[in-house]
Amino acid sequence: MLVEALPYIRRFQGSTLVVKYGGNAMIEDQLSIEFAQDVVLLKLVGLNPVVVHGGGPQIGDLLKRLNIESRFVDGLRVTDEQTMDVVQMVLGGLVNQEIVSLLNQQGGRAVGVTGKDGNLIQARKFKLERRTPELDAPEIIDIGHVGEIVNIQTDILTTLMKAGFIPVIAPIGVGADGESYNINADTVAGKIAEYLSAEKLILLTNTPGVLDTNKQTISELSRADVERLIADGTIGSGMLPKVECALEALSGGVGSVQIVDGTVSHALLLEIFTDSGVGTKIS
């Protein structure tokens, strides 16, 4: 396996790799340790990993303990001021620092930031539009402090990477008025990969990748393949946001996007450094 990895190490040395970390890989202790080992090894062999994490289940758990109702509209968490306070506590505090600590325990030098640090993730309020036959104009639904990305200010990330650190990013954006915004972690990872001109964007999921009609993993797809599979319904609602994120990242100049099964032991290393990989590559 080490011999198989050698050409990949040579090829990707010095390049930037953005990893969206979430799902079972984040919740299960052994998978979390293996993820941290993988990221640290990537740094040690000359790649520049950047970690963007989610935390939906942890947010949901704390809201439940505080007797605050969790509400969703079209898959987006309705984020009022009270919920936003919980989001910031969980993502910017608890989850972010757990990941930083885990990476440091495995020999890395990780630094946690939110999108508010150094104006990293500049955002504005997301306007959710819903069209109905009864209305001529789309209905605008207010879902609170949910944001969309306006700009990524990458200097804080490049400074950290040049100094040998691994940035760990909580997906919280900041508005022009200083307001905090909850932003989807896949979207943040894709935009950061785009602005950093990353060689790879890796989305860790709870599924083996993009599946064909026989439920078998498709190892590699082109943009045209993805568009065809969306049109014929093979790529359904659960995978659709991830492949759309992938296509947008590719349009922004990212080299390739991997949708990887985070439940596989050492999934990152297997995907990057072996011929077969463990997910779906979109390029």
Characteristic terms for this protein:
283 residues; alpha/beta; two-stranded antiparallel sheet; 16 strands; 40% helix
Description of the molecule:
This protein is an alpha/beta fold and 283 residues long. It contains 10 helices and 16 strands. The chain has an 8-stranded mixed beta sheet, with helices on both faces. α4 packs across α5 and α7 runs parallel beside α9. The radius of gyration is 19 Å and the shape is globular.
Question: Can I get a quick summary?
Answer:
The protein has about 280 residues and is α/β, with parallel strands linked by helices. About 40% of the residues lie in helices and about 25% in strands.
What is the makeup of the main sheet?
8 strands, mixed
Q: Categorize the overall geometry.
A: globular
Instruction: Please give the radius of gyration in angstroms.
Output: 19 Å
Strand order of the largest sheet: 5-10-2-1-13-15-16-14
- SSE string, helix = H, strand = E? HEHHEHEEHEEEEEHEEEHEEHHEHE
